[in-house]
Design goal:
alpha+beta; Aminopeptidase; 2 domains; seven-stranded mixed beta sheet; 14 strands; globular
């Protein structure tokens, strides 16, 4: 185990320990699952350490200053946060050492502390939905979603299968992701390239990550897939959802079926952030979230 100030690069072998810490904290933000950290480790170069009973997660994108996520532990976090950020300034040369994507509960623990500057990050707010809304699509506000699904069923009702992701179709999911990237021109968009790397990491170690996932296959070919896991005791988080954009209704169908099949016993679904992308924000709002999980940047200014 890495003990602060020593850090260990995040690896698959760390899953039991990291997941145990994260689950004990019952997080609300989508970043705080082992799967999310693991599949984005190439981009963020995640490292971890333990200070007392607190898990520290240190990240650094290429060419940028390092940062922490909020400490994960049940007790007060003011002291460990100051200690970690002072170390970041002293040992890593960060002019403005910071914690990224902190939740409101953590920020409230810093209330009145003059050495912290707190900034909301709207592009990283997570969207939370009532699971029954996504599963049932009842009422006028979901009329368009039901129409999209009905259109798909009229065209493919007898030709499609909704199947769990497993050894028999993992390679088909990878094949579909490559086709999706060709349609979306991933090679011209760094964000999509980073996401492609994350999806590839998830599918390569799918069984070890112990997530729940499903695919829609049409005449044997995967045309959509998704996967997620429990974030806390009453919320599931959907990490990835992909569908062929040339097949109308496919996104709406896989979203509905995934919620119905895997998450009916969980009250809420976290569908992560919109990254300030107009189309993605519009799509997430169209499902009528019950609330947003606010996130903040916390900078130590003295």
């Amino acid at each position: 185990m890495a003990v602060f100030p020593e850090f260990k690069p995040l690896g698959l072998e760390d899953r039991p320990l990291i997941q145990s810490h994260l689950w004990s904290g019952q997080p609300e933000t989508s970043e705080l699952t082992f799967t999310n950290l693991y599949i984005w480790r190439t981009l963020y170069r995640w490292q971890w350490s333990v200070d007392g009973g607190c898990l520290l997660l240190l990240g650094q994108k290429e060419g940028q200053d390092p940062f922490f996520l909020q400490p994960v532990c049940p007790g007060p976090r003011l002291g460990v946060s100051r200690r970690a950020l002072d170390w970041l300034r002293r040992e890593r040369g960060g002019a403005s050492p910071r914690i990224e994507r902190a939740d409101a509960k953590f920020v409230s623990e810093l209330s009145g502390e003059a050495d912290f500057e707190i900034t909301p990050l709207r592009e990283h707010f997570d969207y939370i939905y009532d699971t029954s809304d996504l599963s049932d699509l009842k009422g006028g506000k979901y009329h368009a979603k039901r129409n999209h699904i009905n259109r798909f069923l009229q065209n493919f009702g007898r030709a499609y299968e909704f199947r769990p992701i497993g050894p028999d179709n993992l390679s088909l999911c990878l094949d579909f992701q490559e086709r999706w990237c060709e349609l979306k021109r991933c090679a011209e968009d760094m964000n999509l390239l980073d996401e492609w790397e994350a999806v590839r990491a998830a599918l390569a170690d799918y069984e070890s990550l112990k997530v729940n996932g499903a695919a829609i296959q049409i005449e044997g070919k995967v045309e959509a897939f998704t996967f997620g896991e429990l974030l806390n005791s009453d919320t599931a988080v959907v990490h990835i959802e992909k569908a062929n954009p040339e097949i109308p209704g496919l996104y709406a169908l896989i979203n509905q079926r995934f919620c119905q099949t895997y998450w009916s016993s969980v009250p809420f679904i976290n569908r992560e952030q919109d990254l300030d992308e107009e189309g993605l924000r519009k799509a997430k709002l169209s499902y009528h979230p019950v609330r947003l999980v606010e996130k903040y940047r916390v900078e130590k200014i003295s």
